[in-house]
Write a structure and sequence with these properties.
His_Pase_superF_clade-1, His_PPase_superfam, Rossmann fold, alpha/beta, 218 residues, single chain, six-stranded mixed beta sheet, phosphatase activity, 26% helix, PGM_Phosphatase, 4 helices
Amino acid sequence: MVATTVHLLRHGEVHNPEGLLYGRLPGYRLSERGQAMAELVARTLAGEEGAPRRDVVAVVASPLQRAQETAVPIARAFGVEITTDERIIEAENHFQGMTFGVGDGSLRHPEHWPHLRNPFRPSWGEAYTAQVERVLAAVDAARATALGHEVVLVSHQLPIWVTRLSLEGRRLWHDPRRRQCSLASLTSLRYDGDRLVGVGYSEPAAALLPGASPVPGA
């Protein structure tokens, strides 16, 4: 059988001084640290950070600016063009463009409360099952394009996480604080032919995450 790997890469840190839930809103770019994260992921995949060079033959990104910017250094490192796929875009969310929480957040307003009635779907946005369906369709298309090699899909935390939960046979509703999908992380799907044989997770930009310990000598 033919071995193919599809890497689901979460974008890097976003410049968001207002602390809004930006969702699918346009114009949210990477912060300086987010740009550094994208560069570090590219160098890691290209074998410049001590790990073997990966066999990446295609780079696909969500249409949102933060995903496109994260994809740029990776595409450059492997000499490929970025392909855009709407199916790996961020999840829809009723609270897009708002701050979320009690106090001065959107939860202080009763008109928003009905959107929290069903955390299992969830009622505040796109159904988890719908996210999984569209991401897996994009994964299958990318896998066909990169058959026998590796492909990077730059997407967003929630779609990546619920797709992993689905593939691992776990329930889709979850505590958002327990997602294993940090900024600029890779969730790697390994296929033998059409059969999924493994799911890996790595954080090539871990040293740049907010709150990370300083790198010795840096």
